[in-house]
């Protein structure tokens, strides 16, 4: 079955729209600042999505553009200003950053309470990509066990879960979040030997690579739940780490691209923005 991420996202957005309308009645306008350096087409596309969803739910999204040849000092100055601006509740610096800055330095730039992407080690927020994967898993568990008395956590602990990829924006935060819920999380990467058998031994496969055909039809079973986080371009179109047409009839559930993880990810980012208001104003 194809999992429709747009349905999951629209439930989250409906809930946020209601919360934001309540906040606006108290003259609080949730505002996300997006710092975009350069004009990488994928980054531009992600930012457009954030602007669109912000508009749909009534949150303000302010885009701050920097040139790729801008200085690190200027980037730091701009983020520092946003950190202390009371009208800004969340800040994201779209990655990858064409301005040369170490990952550690970049992660520490945004104040933890405004770090809605969850990169700062003290950020109170679950990275949106990890929340998105969790929401998709919850959706599937509900579909499987609607009438049975089993909680998500109990169900999840029984699943053999494989995360393919250990990158900073997808595999790592997802694995870290899932590890808090279960001891059955395996991580695979470019050096993993016999990925096929590791996949076949898993109930849930979350692939976070960004290359074609990482997971192929003979690496899955009719019970597999397959989530495609990794993205790459093919003839101008976004694709995930598996061939959807090939995999569709071979697994129990899979996420498509477009309309899979992406929309849920953006909705979860705005969930964090609304949570950050509670942190700001308590
Ligand atoms: N859908 C969304 O909303 C969303 C959000 C965030 C990110 N993404 C996408 O997620 C992908 C990963 O991003 P990232 O920044 O976390 O990753 P990254 O830093 O590019 O890392 C890629 C990971 O994949 C592993 N890998 C490469 N080739 C492999 C292979 N043939 N088999 C198994 N593993 C392999 C690498 O292994 P090594 O560690 O051994 O090098 C590495 O851990 C990208 O395509 C990104 O665009 C999507």
How does this structure look, described?
- It is a single chain.
- The chain has 282 residues and is of the alpha/beta class.
- The chain has two domains: 89 residues, 3-Layer(aba) Sandwich (Rossmann fold); 135 residues, NAD(P)-binding Rossmann-like Domain (Rossmann fold, 3-Layer(aba) Sandwich), CATH 3.40.50.720.
- Helix content is 43%, strand content 15%.
- The chain contains ten helices and ten strands.
- A five-stranded parallel beta sheet has the order 5-4-6-7-10. Strands 2-1-3 form a three-stranded parallel beta sheet, sandwiched between helices.
- Helix 2 links the parallel strand 1 and strand 2.
- Helix 1 packs parallel to helix 10 and helix 2 crosses helix 10.
- It is globular, with a radius of gyration of 19 Å.
- The mean pLDDT is 96.
- The site of NADP nicotinamide-adenine-dinucleotide phosphate (NAP) has 26 residues, from helix 10.
User: What is the ordering of alpha helices and beta strands?
Assistant: HEHEHEHHHEHEHEEEEHEH
Tell me the total number of β-strands: 10
Calculate the terminal CA-CA distance, rounded to whole Å: 43 Å
Annotated CATH homologous superfamily of the largest domain: NAD(P)-binding Rossmann-like Domain
Per DSSP, what share of the residues sits in E-state strands of 2 or more residues? 5-15%
Give the integer mean of the pLDDT values: 96
- Which regions are unreliable across 5 or more consecutive residues at pLDDT < 50? none
Shape: globular
Give the total of domains. Answer: 2
Helical residue percent band: 40-55%
The rounded Rg comes to 19 Å
Q: Count up the helices.
A: 10
Cofactors, ions and other ligands in the entry: NADP nicotinamide-adenine-dinucleotide phosphate
């Amino acid at each position: 079955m194809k999992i429709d991420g747009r349905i999951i996202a629209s439930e989250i957005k409906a809930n946020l729209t209601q919360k934001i309308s309540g906040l606006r009645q108290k003259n609080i306008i949730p505002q996300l600042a997006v710092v975009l350096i350069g004009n990488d087409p994928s980054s531009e596309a992600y930012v457009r999505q954030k602007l669109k969803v912000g508009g749909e739910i009534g949150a303000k999204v302010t885009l701050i553009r920097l040139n790729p040849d801008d200085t690190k000092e200027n980037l730091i100055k701009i983020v520092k200003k946003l950190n202390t601006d009371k009208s800004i509740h969340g800040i994201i610096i779209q990655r990858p950053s064409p301005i040369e800055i170490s990952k550690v330095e970049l992660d520490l730039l945004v104040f933890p309470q405004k770090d809605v992407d969850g990169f700062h080690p003290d950020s109170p927020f679950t990275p949106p990509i990890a929340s998105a994967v969790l929401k998709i898993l919850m959706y599937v568990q509900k579909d499987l066990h609607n009438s049975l008395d089993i909680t998500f956590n109990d169900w999840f602990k029984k699943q053999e879960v494989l995360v393919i990829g250990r990158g900073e924006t997808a595999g790592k935060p997802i694995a870290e979040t899932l590890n808090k819920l279960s001891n059955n999380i395996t991580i695979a990467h470019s050096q993993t030997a016999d990925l096929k058998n590791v996949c076949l031994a898993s109930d849930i496969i979350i692939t976070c690579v960004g290359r074609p055909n990482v997971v192929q039809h003979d690496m899955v079973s009719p019970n597999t739940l397959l989530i495609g986080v990794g993205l790459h371009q093919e003839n101008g179109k976004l694709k995930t780490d598996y061939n959807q047409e090939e995999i569709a009839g071979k697994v129990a559930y899979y996420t498509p691209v477009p309309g899979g993880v992406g929309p849920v990810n953006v909705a979860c980012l705005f969930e964090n923005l609304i949570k950050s208001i509670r942190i700001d104003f308590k």
